[in-house]
Write a structure and sequence with these properties.
By secondary structure, the chain is mainly alpha-helical.
Length: 304
């Protein structure tokens, strides 16, 4: 009988402590939940609400259902913007990954002035995208830009850079690569610093060359870090806006008009907030799908 009373008393005391803890948690949970709702959930809910309406700023708001989404299917401009976004993203991920891994391998080795070289290498990443875009815009000028001056000094023909539809996206990718390769380098460099030394010693004893050591030892061990860098770079490249808007504003014509530029123009140049909100919703799904794909590859490599 006493045992039953003791167990019941402990159970009641435990339940009382849990209720007391719950009361203590609410002052922390409610403000955080309110901030999340105000900053994240409400803007997305309002965007979805606007995407099913036809609303031009200054006019009446009319419910149109999925008409804005159906409009995208027949909008050739949207289709080309989607393809340019994927093209720009692919190049803006592949080039920084290759150069970033190579730089990490170089900076992982000891040599005089390595600290200063690392500092200089990561400096582009510290600047804001708008400032970087303004500097590169001056360098791309066909007559006054320093890049064409260097080309002509070496006997090469000048380039139109961002003023020609065939070269504008590769040129914008060059700017992205210059600024964000240091980020990839830092992530991979951290992975290289954490690698064990035993596999390298065994490879050297077996007479493996430097290329063989990199391919069969370094690359597999550092691959999880490379995938993390690819995920971060892929998401960032998909959302790129500042550099493209400042340097080319989607031009010449629509040659560099990505989804971000298109939805900006629809919202703030044509004042078509309903269609712009629909593009935002589709763009969010695209970012989510690409992120899930990259995370799937990373998880698969981690388990293999």
């Amino acid at each position: 009988m006493s045992t039953t009373v003791s167990v019941g008393a402990r159970t009641a005391a435990t339940a009382a402590r849990r209720r007391n803890y719950a009361r203590q948690y609410w002052p922390f949970i409610v403000p955080a939940g309110a901030v999340v709702f105000a900053v994240i959930l409400f803007p997305w809910l309002f965007t979805l609400f606007m995407s099913v309406h036809d609303w031009h700023i200054g006019g009446e708001r009319t419910f149109v259902g999925l008409r804005n989404y159906a409009r995208m299917l027949g909008d050739e401009r949207f289709g080309w913007a989607l393809l340019r976004t994927l093209y720009f993203t692919a190049l803006s991920v592949i080039l920084p990954m290759v150069l970033g891994v190579a730089a990490a391998v170089v900076f992982h080795r000891s040599f005089p002035g390595r600290g200063l070289a690392r500092t200089l290498f990561i400096m582009p990443m510290m600047a804001t995208p708008v400032a970087v875009a303004l500097v590169w815009t001056m360098m791309f000028h066909p007559q006054l830009g320093v890049l064409n001056y260097l080309l002509t000094s070496m006997g090469l023909p000048p380039s139109a850079w961002v003023y020609e539809s065939g070269t504008v996206i590769p040129t914008l990718v060059m700017v992205e690569t210059w600024q964000w390769t240091p980020l990839v380098m830092l992530i991979v460099l951290g992975g290289l610093a954490s690698l064990p030394t035993d596999p390298y010693e065994a490879a050297m004893l077996d007479g493996a060359s430097m290329a063989q050591v990199f391919r069969h030892v370094t690359l597999p061990l550092v691959w999880p870090f490379i995938m993390v860098a690819a995920v971060i770079r892929g998401i960032d490249a998909l959302k790129a806006f500042d550099t493209i808007f400042v340097i080319s504003n989607g031009g010449p014509g629509t040659a560099s008009e990505t989804l971000n530029i298109l939805l900006y123009l629809q919202a703030f140049s044509f004042y078509d907030m309903g269609y712009a909100s629909a593009i935002v919703a589709v763009f969010f799904v695209l970012i989510l799908l690409v992120t899930m794909l990259l995370l799937h590859f990373r998880q698969r490599d981690a388990l293999s």
